[in-house]
Amino acid sequence: MKVFNQSLNNVQWITTAYLLAVTLTIVLAAYLQRSFKFKNLIIAAGTASVIGGVICMLSNTLPVMLLGRVIQGIGTGIAMPLLFSIIMLEVPRAKQGSFVGTAGMIVALAPSLGPTYGGICLAALNWRFNFIFTLPCRSPSSSASSRPAS
Questions:
Q1: Calpha distance 82→38 (Å, rounded)
Q2: Which of 17, 34, 76, 129 lies 20 to 30 Å from 4 when distance is taken between CA atoms?
Q3: What integer pLDDT is reported at residue 141 of this predicted model?
Q4: What is the helix, strand, coil percentage profile of the chain, to 5?
Q5: Least confident range of 4-8, 20-24, 92-96, 101-105
Q6: Interior CA angle at 21 toward 19 and 27, to 5°?
């Protein structure tokens, strides 16, 4: 609110826009997985997350921050259902429960750990570090499945 000199109502759009983008993209997940290779979807999700993070990190106005969060939301909306599809298609049946449980735990903890992480960054560093620290340090492995979901 201080950085962008905005009201709470306006700043809440940062979260709302992100969640709307995630939700709308998840709705398209089945279509995307039928139409594109898993590898391409993983690359698209990662690229959207990185581009969105960089836009957020560099933003100087609320509309630019909103754009970055929408792009990040698209990346998350592609990656989340893809994660579970890959588990079901690639992990042996006997191990699927533990993989789905671990993935579900990560997805469930994110909404509570994210604000905690953000608060620590804000208390110790500049707000832009919230986005700097979430950028990947190296490129993802190229061993992801390249076949579309059936």
A1: 8
A2: 76
A3: 53
A4: 75, 0, 25
A5: 4-8
A6: 105
Q: Write out the two tokens for 92.
A: 């042996």
Is it the case that residue 142 has pLDDT exceeding 70? no
* Contact status, residue 10 vs residue 62, Cβ threshold 8 Å: yes
Q: Give the span between the Cα atoms of 107 and 46, in whole angstroms.
A: 16
Amino acid code (one letter) for 90 = E
Two structure tokens written together for 55: 């836009």
CA distance 127 to 90: 39
Give the three-class secondary structure for 148.
coil
> Among all chains, which residue has been given the structure tokens 């929408």?
70
Contact indicator for 149, 34 with CB cutoff of 8 Å: yes
Dist. CA 60–CA 16, nearest whole Å = 19
User: Tokens standing for 127?
Assistant: 């707000």
pLDDT at 140: 52
